[in-house]
Amino acid sequence: MLTVRNQPLGSIATIEKICPERVPLCLDLLPALSGEDTTKSFFQELVNILLSYVCKSFRRSSKVLDFHHPHQLREGLEGFSLELPDQPENLEQLLVDCRDTLKYGVKTGHPRFFNQLSSGLDVIGLAGEWLTSTANTNMFTYEVSPVFILMEEILLKKMQEIVGWSEEEGDGVFCPGGTMSNLYSVLLARYHFFPEVKTKGMTALPRLILFTSAHSHYSVKKSAAVLGIGSENVVVVKCNDWGKMIPAELESSIITAKDQGCVPFYVNATAGTTVYGAFDPLNAIADICESHGLWLHVDAAWGGGLLMSNLHRVKLQGIERAWSVTWNPHKMMGAPLQCSAILVKKRGLLKDCNQMCAEYLFQTDKHYDTSYDTGDKTIQCGRHVDVFKLWLMWKAKGSEGFESQVNKCLENAEHLFDKLKQRPDFELVFKSKPEHSNVCFWYIPPSLRNMSPGPERNRRLHEVAPKIKAKMMEQGMAMIGYQPLGDKVNFFRCVFSNPATQTEDVDYLLEEIASLGHDICIRAETDL
Ligand code: ABU
């Protein structure tokens, strides 16, 4: 059997059998004449590598990550080189490169990966992603993506119906992530109130102001910066202790902005904040938007998944009053990255705002209904097919399957919350039951347990989570995120969106943190 750097690679030998005279190269693959067999062998071997990775991703005995510092990966590890060659590498080497790429990556589908809002490895979603890449087409016109365009229409309609919009309302597109979806919302709101901006630019406009909460995603400020409104024209509205926007603060900020001669036009409310998982009071915010005539956007990138659950959708009451909604199925619904929708209540606005009528692409004299050439509704030209994997998952699970998935993630969060309440070595960031699947907490090492609250304890506590995380990443058996927020020093944020995670994984995480943190010694300020 052929080996590459002493690592046997099974069916690579098949490739050699087909081309015994030399080690095969990519030139031996299709479209080479008689390249079919070599291509099949190459793909069979690749599929073996991918399947082995998929199986390992679910195995608790396997590591979540095999961490190396950037300089180590750059220098090359056990023959895995990132450098680009002048001469072609052979197919065996390419397969080893594929295997090593996965080996040194992070298994975001592992049941003990708690680091990101998007996690899990949905096997049907993965199949959908493979098919999508195989089709390798573009979402801009019906002529090159007839099936995917119709799937997008059907998915968007379904999501709009779940949000609670009527038959006559609703438009949207899938776009590359929640930040882009939020960007669309600001762009559309501005165009709705000031359509002349499309041709005249900002010079034709008054000083516009938008509003978002202190706990909202940074993409709202980024959108203002990108769109020439300016991040300083984003008013950050105060939140209560649980991270929810305070409606009275919103109203007084709007009045203040008007008194200053500015023009408020847009409010972002968050359904599921990034760190706390908080839900803004949507109905109260919608009332204020209505009375001031402002565009209401709901960023439900993270919380949108809860709409699938009859038990939890009540937390998004009022979302149907939004003028636009961001909803990322690649988060709580477990679709492979990327899968984010911007839903827009007013039909036709996306097209009016973004259309440029490029004649080489969007000819009006095509022989089919060109309203299905949806590309001109977007700010991109080429657009990845993000819909098929979600469509296939929906077929496979039904809406009920997503509901149980979401419910299970929230049950895991409740389990963690209950465990934390019982343990003297952990402290919850707040005592109330989590609304979403975010659970925020500190680990208190023995050396800090008897310290009285105050700046010195906070200074030391701030160092605990990063130290534990560093050790955890070196060991590679679990992964969780941390951050400071407001007046709170670094704390862990555990999030559940992976249906593979069981309560035993939650228990494991706590034990892992406690064992990695037990002997942590943070020096007193006087010793520094
Ligand atoms: N807002 C993007 C996702 C952030 C996170 O996974 O923590």
TrEMBL record:
Record has Magnesium as a keyword: no
Pfam families documented for this protein: Pyridoxal_deC
Molecular function terms, GO-annotated: glutamate decarboxylase activity; pyridoxal phosphate binding
Modified residues (N6-(pyridoxal phosphate)lysine): K331
Cellular component, GO, one term: cytoplasm
UniProt keyword Transmembrane helix, yes or no: no
Record's keyword terms, sorted: Decarboxylase, Lyase, Pyridoxal phosphate
Domain of life of the native organism: Eukaryota
GO biological process, one term: gamma-aminobutyric acid biosynthetic process
Cofactor(s) for this UniProt protein: pyridoxal 5'-phosphate
Subunit structure: Homodimer.
Protein family per UniProt: Belongs to the group II decarboxylase family.
Name of the protein described by the UniProt record: Glutamate decarboxylase 3
Gene that produces this protein: LOC110530340
